[in-house]
Amino acid sequence: MAEQAVRSEATGRVWKIEVAEGQAVAEGDTLLVVESMKMEIPLAAPRAGTVVALHVAEGDMVEEDQVVLLLG
Q: What are the tens digits of pLDDT across the range 47-72?
C-alpha cells in the first residue's frame, strides 16, 4: 500500500500525539490533537495503516494543510 501524507486540518499547536512510528492504526483512530483558539481538534486516520513517520512533536506549531505524518 502506498504511503499517504496526513495533513493538519487547522493552524495551531500540537497538543498531544496519540501514536508512535511503527504503530498500526485503524480508520478513524485519533492520531494527534491540535489546539487552536482554545479548542482541541483531533486528527483522525483517513484509513487503516501503519505510522511510517511523524513530522511533528508535541508543542510544535502547525499550519493548516501541513503534513504531520505519513501513513503506510
A: 999 999 999 999 999 999 999 999 99
CA triplet 14, 27, 39: central angle to 5 degrees? 30
User: Does the domain at residues 4-71 carry the CATH identifier 2.40.50.100?
Assistant: yes
Retrieve residue 5's grid coordinates: 501524507
> Alpha-carbon distance 25 to 12, whole Å?
24
The C-alpha cell of 17 is what? 500525539
C-alpha–C-alpha distance, residues 68 and 49, integer Å: 15
From CA 19, how far away is CA 54, in angstroms rounded? Answer: 9
Model confidence pLDDT, tens digit, residues 13-36: 999 999 999 999 999 999 999 999
